[in-house]
Write a structure and sequence with these properties.
alpha+beta; 3-stranded antiparallel sheet; 2 helices; 8 strands
Amino acid sequence: MNKVFEFCVNVSGDLWSSYVFENKEDMEKWFENEYKDLESKYENLTCRISTLDKLKVGDECNVYGDGDEVYKILDIIKRAENKYSFLLDSGCSEEVGKCHTKFLK
């Protein structure tokens, strides 16, 4: 799978979840359709939108919560619609939204 994600939407309230998107248009469609469904099922939802580092398979990254540890992205795992994780060379998988390049030298 060869995807590059640009946006992350973190939902909080009665549902805590993150969704990632390859472009702004897909994210806007998600808000128009799927997010409205979530609002009807869960109360008190708020969202935070952030831009991602556009990581892809083969790139090195850091993971929030792991300090300056450096990992190599080996694959992408689809968990659900708009919910993806990276398989890292550590053997662990991490949500795409938790991976960044802040501490790479």
